[in-house]
């Protein structure tokens, strides 16, 4: 799986901060340099937050290459609207992007987010089975977390496509003859991975990825005063922009739902994991919908944002909420019937590499793993380059590690060798006579 993270090995100091924060144990530090196990990474960005040496960054496309294109459609994560000193009106940002030579597809974005909320609301209205609460698929990191660590909850994932993908699909349907590439502005590695290796569809509708950091920097450098644009943008549809913050999706769904929606919202990877553990144990009864986000406060807390998530959260209060018009509802009903909102493929679990090719071999390897683990100190210090002693034992059994990688085992071995050397140093060669022994024999 793609993880959306770029590694700068020259900058890596081997500090092992990243391996301690990864929720899926995907990080390793081998020979003093960080490595990412792609089959375990969910792109949550926790490793980027902990890296103080800037050895990790988003894997985005070259800005000079993209900005030189004659035509480039731009779809933005709603978090981009909150990165600037002006009010987070989407129409203001749309005009700024047009002035820079891009083609922002914001009208289609507003329609796509409305359609997603409508589809989820109708699914919740008709949900009478006992599968448990429906879980949002908006956050790619959360979806991959479930695929990897909470596979029993895959059945609870919403079958509705990500609105950012729907947005580009709607736009392409109108511009099918123009063949204009589309770029997604992403606030986190999971959004980058969504383009490189999407879940629920064969290929992403987006062709390129730009980080929010880079796009915001260019906008702030090239934009002039936008005060004259703010007044004209006050009445625009900004319902979709609220998805940038935790609770925005749930509020949007409730605007279309005919029945009351009992929901839970949670953000931050540790909180998300705790909630899913409780859900697996059957402790969350009576809940219809779960909005889970890997980043604190939602997408405005993404690692690739420039504005403080606390300030961005305050800016939400500047947005006036408006209900869909009758004309918009009629268009949404027509789009709903087309089924464009549905995931193209079923979401499947991500299986980890087995210990052995058959059950007997796997059981033998598991026994070996337990034996190796018993020899380790169980301190989970990370000095071996692995997050835990358990992971260290697994790597050893799989052939990608050695018991000598453990500093405590090496220290014990050094002490044993030192003792052996000390004992050997007292032994004499048989042809040598201890000093003074012959003189003692003569006296006798």
What does this structure look like?
This protein has helices at about 15-20, 45-50, 65, 90-100, 105-125, 140-150, 165-175, 190-195, 210-220, 225-235, 250-255, 270-280, 310-315, 325-340, 360-375, 390-395, 405-425, 435-444; strands at about 5, 25-30, 35, 55-60, 75, 105, 135, 180-185, 210, 265, 290-295. Strand 2 (about 25-30) and strand 3 (about 35) form a beta hairpin. It folds into three domains: about 5-55, Alpha-Beta Plaits, CATH 3.30.70; about 65-340, no CATH class; about 360-425, 3-methyladenine DNA Glycosylase II, Chain A, domain 3. The chain is elongated and about 105 Å long. The chain has 18 helices and eleven strands. The model has no long low-confidence stretch (mean pLDDT about 90). By secondary structure, the chain is an alpha/beta fold. Helix 5 (about 105-125) packs across helix 7.
* Strand order in the largest sheet: 6-5-8-9
- Gyration radius over CA: 29 Å
Strand residues, percent: 5-15%
Number of helices: 18
Spell the H/E element sequence. EHEEHEHEHEHEHHEHEHHHEHEHHHHHH
Structural class, from helix and strand content? Answer: alpha/beta
Described by the principal axes of the CA atoms, the overall outline is: elongated
Largest sheet: 4 strands, parallel
Amino-to-carboxy terminus distance? 85 Å
Helix content: 40-55%
- Write down the domain tally: 3
Work out the number of β strands.
11
Instruction: Tell me, rounded to a whole number, the average pLDDT.
Output: 89
Unreliable spans: none
